[in-house]
Each structure stands twice: as structure tokens, then as C-alpha cells.
């Protein structure tokens, strides 16, 4: 494969460009520590083999054998890993020698079901040396194995087995694929595999309290009020002691009453509605300019609110009714989750919950008024205003007392003191009320914050548990994909009226088909919601190519295409690798234009920091059948039919299965 750093872009053959999304599941089942025991490495290797990652499986099982973990069971899975996804022409000379040595070591293992399975595996390989050998005895022994062993052999030796032997086994494999294709509730569960891992709940923290500044200003204003009040009362007392002794208690009582009831009134009047009051500044955050995140959040809110309108509301009417609510919530969520590598799809669970919560609040009558009004609030307001009126009247009465008394020369001082009392009293009362209200606000908002976080945490756990319960395993995904591939190949054989005896070899290339969603476990291959299947059937007459698109979520197929060409018509095959776009396979026919097949899209931006981009690319390409397909087409393009003759399976050395 050639690599280039030049900018390169091409769409897959007859494909359309669409939106893509990628999900990486934080799974550790296929990750092994460097200091793991040989047994642990073997276990992980078998799991990788079952999940379709045969290259990595070969490495793990070979490493386990090299460190002394070598039994008939281990060697059986090693042989399957060596041949999984590979045809005879994919094996190097060293691979063939290793298989030959392994066949000679069969006699050294203890007798048992695994030794029987290993021996039969090599007997199947030995039958490739004859065009049409007697398969009856081997098939009888094969069918005597356990279903697990037999199915594993047929699956992983798929590209090696040919001719009459495979014809005898194909019907069984097709029936099994038809039975398992929609098994384990595939249609209702597979979507969960491509659903992104939800990010945890967040809520805006409580705003910092401003009570400290108000408390600091209160003492000075209170002292000024006390001094002014003392001067005013003394001048009134000097002017008319009898009247002053009545006016002072009235003024003090009215002032304290106004303060007491004013506090109750203000605490109710200034309590914000958390569903309608904006929790973030209405101005747009400059850091979000051009990133589109806020717009996507608002669009998601619109979609979920529209789809969750309460009874009696048309969707468009509900959107109008909740415009302020959606705006406030969207601004909050956009502010909380605007960070690198966080997509809107990871917080859609929260947006969906908030839309449902708004609907429920509407149903119970608390959407636009999230608090219960204190029935004493109106009374407190009236009493506070009455007390202020009494206080004002009493103050004017004290001024009148000073002006009319014998000490009227104190009038200017009394007027000045009254002005100071009014200003300082209002300022001191405002500072005291602000401090008390801030204390109550912090307590109230702290309680509301914990209530929001608790509700959102419950919604998050419910959604995550739902996903975990539904999400298919790697083995299930691989099983469903293999069933689709088997039935696709079977349909192609039926269309062309071919049997496996008529085929020299075949290869199936699995590519992403846009638009798609994709997901994978860590260090596993990418899996797609939509695939492109491209089958090459190689016969004595040439190559038959059949391609189709598959919706993996429900196994529906579309856009079937067929093309036939002779060996000499395939003039060249090349691969373009680019870290920004992915891998493209280019087929050039002598009688037509070059065709570009997008084998794999770029994914380096979606890898975990500890993952190696080249390793993940090789795993995905191996699982897609790319390596086998490329070698086959490259050989045909270079040597034509002569390449097929030189790579005849009958040239495979005989395997020693005695013992």
C-alpha cells in the first residue's frame, strides 16, 4: 500500500456524502496488561477472534504459546486465528511452515475433544490438495464435533475451504445464518451500539452571595440613623416633652414593623422562577462564535419539545408557549457543556429529560410559576406600606413639634436631622434587607441546585442503564454481520447459478456506506450502521462483482449492482492512504473509468489518547476483508489467470494428522 501526505478526497463508488458520527465504547474486555499471564493473553485472544479481530488474536495466542501455554485447545484456536479471514494465497511461506509444524505436534497433546477438533482441522486443510476428494469421512467426523467447535471451524476457515467440501457444508451454514440473522432481538437493540456514551449531569452552580458587602455597609448607615434619630427626638423633647414621648415610640414601632413586614414582602416578590428566569447572561459567549454548538443545542431542544407536546397542544403551539422556557434551558445547557470533544448527541438524554420535565410541569400547573405563593405576602405588603405611612406622618409630626415649640431655634437642626434619618434609614434598611435576602437566596438556590442535580442524576442513570442493558456485545455484532454476509453470498451464487465447485476463490469487501453512524470498543474495529458489501467471485471465465448497500440496523438492502469482467480487463489496483480522509481502493479496468472505493474513513480524531492510529487502522481494515481483497485483486491485475494457477490450493503441503 502506498501512502501519501497529499490532500486527497474521493467518494465511494456510487455513494452519497452524509453526516457521520462516531462512538467509542470504554470497554476493557479486549485489553490486556503487558504483564498479563499467558492464560490471560490466550483468553483475550479467543475473545478477539470471536469478535472478528483475527490479526490481534493471532498475536495474543502466539504470545501465549511462546510463554508455555500450549494445549490442544490453545493450538486449535491458534490455527483458526492463522486462517481466519485469509485464503491460501494470503499465507506466507513462514505461515505455511508454522501450520505444517503444528500438524506434526498434534500427537503430543492429550486425548480429548480439543485434540479431535484440531486433528479434523488439519484433515480439512489436507483435502485442499485434491480437486474433488472423498469428503464423506471428514464431514462425518466434523459433524460429530460440538456445535461450538464446528461453527467456529466453518466460520474461520471460510476462505480456505473450497470445492465440493464447501458445497457439502454451505447449506448448513446458510440455514444457520437465516436462523441467527435476527436473533437476540437485533432490530430493537442494535441502535444502542451506535448510541454515544452519555456525559454526566451538570447544573449551574449557586451564584456567589453579595451579603458581605451589604453587611459591611450596614453599621455605618445604622449609626448615622441612630444619631439623626437621637437629635430629632431630643429637639422634639426640648420643644414639647409630652408630644415627643408619644411620637418616639410610635416612630420606632412603625419603623420596626415596616422592616419586619418589608422583609417578608421582598423575599416573596424577588424570588425568581427557575423555569422562566434566565440563568445565564442573555448575551452570546464570544468563545462560542462560529462553533455551532449553541445552535445545535437549540435545535435539539426544539425537536424534543415538539415531539413531547402535552395533550391539548399542537406541536407548533407548544413551541410558542414554551419559547422562554426553551431559551433559558438551552442557554444553560450550552454554557455547561460547551467544551472540546463534547457533541450534542452525548447530552441529548438531558435535553430529552428537560423536555419531558417541562411537559410534566405544565400538566401539574407549575411550568410558568414554579413556586407556591405565600398567602401572607399580600398582607405583609399592605402592613409594610401602612407602617411606612405611619412612620412618615410621625416624622412630620416631630418636625411640627420642634417648629411650634419654644425652642423653635432648633428647627434647622431638626430639619437637617430628619433628612439624615430619612436617607440613612432607607440605606440601612436596604443593606439589612439585601443581606438577609441574599442569605435566604443562597439557601434556596442551594436546595434547588441539589434538587436539579438529583433529578438529572436519576435521569442519567436510567438512560445509561437502559443503554447498557440493550447494547449488543461485540460477539453479537459480529454474528449478525456474518449472517448478513453469508446470505448475501448465497444470493449471489443463486443468481449466477454457481456452486462452490465452480469458484476458484472469492472475497468480500465490507465498507462504510454514507450516511452512517459508527461505533467500536476500544482497540476494536469500527462497526457501521450502514455497510457497502462488495463481493468478487473468481471463476475460470473471469470475475463477477456484486455490490449492494445494507442497513445494518434492520438488514434491509438497496442499490444492488453487478459487473462482470475478464482477468485481463483488470489493469491495475492501488490504494491511497491519507490520515485526513482515510483509505481509498482504486480499480482500473481497461474498458471503463477508474472506480474509487472508500474502504475506511479517517478516525484519528476519535481515538483515545492511548490508542495507536496505525494499529486501529490495521484492525479495521483486517475486519473489513480489505487485506485479502487487495492481495487477490492486485495479483489478478498483475498476472491475470496465471496468478490463480500459481496459487492453486493443491500446492499446499500435506499436513501430518496421524497420532
Structure explained in plain terms:
This protein has 659 residues and is an alpha+beta fold. It folds into 3 domains: 2-194 and 473-651, no CATH class; 211-271 and 379-470; 286-363, no CATH class. The protein has helices at 38-50, 54-66, 72-83, 93-104, 113-126, 136-143, 147-156, 163-180, 186-189, 211-239, 241-269, 293-307, 315-321, 323-337, 348-363, 377-404, 411-470, 474-496, 613-623, 626-639, 641-646; strands at residues 2-3, 20-25, 503-512, 516-521, 527-528, 530-539, 542-551, 556-565, 570-578, 582-589, 595-601. The strands form 3 sheets. A 4-stranded mixed beta sheet has the order 1-9-10-11, covered by helices on one side. A 4-stranded antiparallel beta sheet has the order 3-6-7-8. The radius of gyration is 40 Å and the shape is elongated.
Distance linking N and C termini = 43 Å
Main sheet: which strands, in order across? 1-9-10-11
Largest sheet: 4 strands, mixed
* Number of helices, where a helix is a run of at least 4 consecutive DSSP H or I residues: 21
Shape: elongated
Strand content: 5-15%
Topology, number of strands: 11
Radius of gyration: 40 Å
Q: For the residues shown, what is the average pLDDT?
A: 81
- The total number of structural domains is 3
Segments where pLDDT lies below 50 for 5+ residues?
Answer: 1-19, 281-290
Question: Helical proportion?
Answer: 40-55%
Find the structural class using helix and strand composition. alpha+beta
